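User: Can you model how 2-succinylbenzoate sits in this protein?
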Amino acid sequence: MSINQRFEIDSVVVRGLRLELKSPFTTSGWTTTHKTPIVVEVKGAGISGWGEGAVANAPFYNHETPQTALHILKEFAIPLFLREKPTTPQDLSRLLSRIQRNGFARAALEMAYWDWCAKAQGLPLYRMLGGTRNVIPVGVSIGIQKSPTELCEQVGRYIEQGYKRIKIKVAPGKDISFVDAVFKEFPNVPLMIDANSAYSLEAASVFEEMNKFKLMMIEQPLHETDIYQHSLLAKRLTNPICLDESIESLRDADAAIALGACSIINIKPGRVGGLTEAKAIHDLCAAQNVPVWCGGMLESGIGRAANMALATLPNFTLPGDISESSRYYTSDIVEPEIKFEAGGELKLSERSGIGFDVKVEALRKVTVLEEAIL
Ligand code: OSB
Ligand code: MG
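Assistant: Here's the modeled complex, given as structure tokens:
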């Protein structure tokens, strides 16, 4: 594979978007009614590379917000990129690792450069990343519902649409009865739960109670900095623990695995600072027999397409949170829309880069802020 050897970028455009969700999405800690990603466009040689910083609207998932991502991008990440002129996305990733944390901000630029470089080489992003298949299985994430009955209605709907596993959000008081209701109605459903850091170790006996269920995994039961506490909890559980918020880097993944804090990892390229770090975590997990899957952040098609590419790597053996565009949005800003090839399966495009076109007019309509940096 030839590597792009010249830096040919003329400008970087940052945009703040506002995308209305079809219906509110509720986790243990917050409700989202609209999504506000930061989209980066890297321009040069007649090519646009696109990357989405899928930050949450408020600092309830991790520390970042759209405003902090903009700040980091404009004041630090983009100036470093334009000054140092890295010729590969891996070099850019290394350069950006000088910036502490702020993964979503770094990822927005890094992912845009992956897309640009893949397009410059005429390669699909998934092939450039080293993907080994062009069809990926996906699951769905269902927010906290008012009652177990309403949750079961939703679960039934998504099973019918073909999703290959169901994830339900849980919170203290909205946990065991909801899981119980789902298994009563759908005894064989591949089911997992996600607590988004809502429990303390002291309040974690509810997860021991869940030893009576066969869950695919329990995602992020404790606080993001509770790596040690997760290792204690894991010893008491029959269901595997999967970490999301706790893993912001390869070093975190290494420590969590070594401590026995998790036996599965949810990799979100945004949370870990981009596709290079995501791939490094994937490789470490593969070597340690820790399965991984690609998480989601209610992305637009830009972020979703990159997540699809990442999920073609061989150790992504579990269905990812990469739903169809229509799961969250009435229309997407990419074409074609992200849609199942068959039930619960997404097929990668053989076109170069992320494999989808950004719809200029649709993008303009949802852009609330735009700035070019030269
Ligand atoms: O914890 O995985 C999470 C959405 C926003 C923030 C955090 C999470 C989620 C989801 C939905 O679970 C994933 C998706 O479908 O994009
Ligand atoms: Mg999660």
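A couple of observations from the model: The chain has a mean pLDDT of 97. The CA atoms of residues 326 and 339 lie 8 Å apart.
User: Helpful, thanks.
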